[in-house]
Amino acid sequence: MVMLLVPAKADDEVIKETNLTVYFHDYSSGGPNSTALPVVGFPGKLWTFTQFGTLFVSDDLITEGPDPESGTVGRGQGIFVTASLDGLNAYVSISIVFTNDAYNGSTIQVQGNSNQLKAVREYGVVSGTGKFRYVRGYVTFENYSFDPFTSYGIFRCNVSVRHY
Question: Around Cβ 43, how many Cβ atoms within 10 Å?
């Protein structure tokens, strides 16, 4: 066996810290404008956020502020599944896909398991692309507002990452 060691080096050796606050706009009504939908669950069970084993897919608008007309940052695209038997915990794997001028084409990959009913949920940042290569950090999601009649929710996402 031959082992080669090649020193890896980022383009810029200075570690940067980036802190962002963005807002996810989530429509989960099941209607034609929904951005979060259940795609599979156990036969004979309701496909709800608290039903163990229900898998959802999402493609949420991300903006600079809570107003959906504020500047567009990108899209929150990914999956989440109710992962605990009691329906409290959800496993999340989501990409923050940037389309704004500052980070266009870059992504941040968010992953983890958290109590989905908590006011603040924390997940790890496990990788990224573009301006966020070699990224590490965490994000928190907070319920900003929710309209139960339309199933429209706004979630504040605080991103804290270090990258080259």
Answer: 5
Q: Other CB atoms closer than 10 Å to residue 86's CB: what's the count? A: 9
Which residue stretches of the chain are H helix?
none
Tell me the β-bridge partners of 21. Answer: 158
Tell me which amino acid residue 59 is. Answer: D
Q: Which residue has the tokens 């608290």?
A: 50
**27-52, pLDDT tens digit by residue?**
998 888 899 999 999 999 999 989 99
The DSSP H or E segment spanning 105 is none
Q: Is 105 left (phi over 0), alpha (psi -120 to 50) or beta?
A: left
CB neighbour list of residue 161: distance below 8 Å, 6 or more residues apart: 17, 18, 19, 108, 125, 128, 132, 135, 136, 137, 138
Q: Which residue has the tokens 């990788």?
A: 127
CA distance 51 to 55: 9
